[in-house]
Amino acid sequence: MTAVPTVTTVTTPLAPGPARPRRRQLRAALLVLPAVIPVAIVVIGGVGATLLQSLGLMPLVGAAELSTAAFDDTDELLTSALLSLSIAVVSTAIAAVVGFFTAVLIISGNWGGRIVTVLSAAAVTVPHLVGAATVGLLLSDSGVLARLFGISPDAWPALVAGPTWFAVIAEYAWKESAFIALIIVGTLATRITSYDEAAAVLGAHRSARLRLVLFPLAAPSLLVASAIAFAYTLGSYEVAWMLGATYPEPLSVMALRLFNTASLTARPEAAAIGVITVVLTAAVVGAAMLGLRRMRAWR
Amino acid sequence: MTSETMSGESASPESMTSAITLTAVTKTYSAASPAALQGVNLDILPGTSTAIVGPSGSGKSTILRIIAGLEDANGGRVRLAGRDVTTLLPEDRGIAMVFQRPLLFPHLTVLDNVAFADRAAGLSRAQARKRARKHLELVHMAEFGGRSPHSLSGGQQQRVAVARALAAKPSVLLLDEPFSALDSGLKGDMHAMIAEIREAVNPTILFVTHDRDEASAMAERIVVLENGQLLQHDTVDHVFHRPASLAVARLLGGKNAFEGTIENGVHHSGLGAVAIDADVEPGPATLVFRHEAVTSTLRQPTSGTDAAALATRHADAAACQRSGPRALHGIVTATVQRGPRREVIVRVADAEVHTEAAPGRPLAVGDLVTVSLPCEALWAVPRQ
Q: In B, which residues are within 8 Å of A217 by CB distance?
């Protein structure tokens, strides 16, 4: 009788699969908490308080009562919202185009690029308020340019405080284009030369490389930087307040005026404008983030 | 003694038919640094595969970048198929280049990466993709067309990079250490792939490598560079076994070099007298031979026979073939295992000889061995 050999299977105890990633995720979450908590307090607290105030639930005087009265003046709000959106869209679009080509010039590495790098870095450090004052001095009917060209104030176009909002858009476009350019350069500088060379030795001329390589690779950072510029432009008031027409008012200027008015009952209206601005900004930034996720270069 | 080509080749009327011709090309990156290339002359024939080897900083990649137009030479001319391209932009030279990193465009699929050159040339997306599929098939990556480059392994990415370069229909394909980051198994696959590509489309290939085995596996000719100077451009066999100088022998891993003097076709050195089958000038010369070509075999000690006696036995021989292969006797001083091969260092007379152990004969330090020197392995270079 022969013994039948038995086959034994040795099973090595395996670490449970999902536990480690979950623990790693938890650790990562804990590490970012110190940064997330203050941001959450400011954003949720600030936006929440504004929302409550706009709905009459946090009045400065009187009893709290749920009301949408602050949103009632729809014509005025719509006009201001459209104006704010127009200024933000046009100035951001110009800044994106100028910023992209400025980045291309900087990345090219020639002497012109180096000069543009210095100018862009300098432009970013100038506060918007100072920039607005400078643009005002430059473009007003008695400003530097009008005097330089010898054009009388009557013949000079209403670039400042005029119906086209030219000076406001110009100031935002100038400042934000420098910001966008530096963001693109920062993300592409280390790798674009290699890809550009790879495309060149495949026979791609400069325009083809710009269209097929440089722009698609820059697109994620261009989109993110543009979204930031848009959000800032839509929410900031000082440039439009200094260089814009008195009527109609952009949302931010109207909110500031109502907030500072002597009547404390105007506070909910100011808060309502704040809420509308937040919603518009969130919608645009959200759309940008969705677009970002669809980009292959980002993935 | 003459190698087929020594110290580079000068441009000649025949070079008009060459795929690549470099004439007195020099390159200096800065005034403070030594020249990266010093008057390099080179002719590469169409349809050949040529490797450029040399130590780091010898100017290997600089040559490729100058041919590609990615660097400007400080002097000299670059011709491709007889056309002077020295001042042309890279995109106008009709070349393609594969870099050490695959540099696949991350925003394009694998298929669109390969279709890139045609898209840049103005073809429609559909046409470009149709052509790209053929090139992906050539590198056995047809089923990966829809994938993103980052989802591929390093070897797969490099295959796609080669397909992308071939899709540009280049007159010359330049490869700058394209497989250096891959493991040895993958490298073997890549060498087989290049062989298939050569059979299918027969491009002129010029590639840089620091791997001597890769150079001999992929090329029929080798260019040896050192300190920006072209030391030798010759067939693989000649560069390894008929080096133009001691520097070439050393750069290609030669371990046996014995300084001595040549008289009547016989080299006299610490190793003894060794006849050389070559047209050698009398005078100071260094005997060189590859350790891979020399084997050591165990022998029983015999009374009164020592290495010097055996070596001098052939001192009067007029030539190696007439005198028969050398058989030197010595003692093993060290052994080094290198993969499946075993290097054996043998003391013969006053010299140490690097040899290989014959298969299946384990040798140990202190063993008495016979070292066989085949005539074909022996070569002498002028003493420097």
A: 105-107
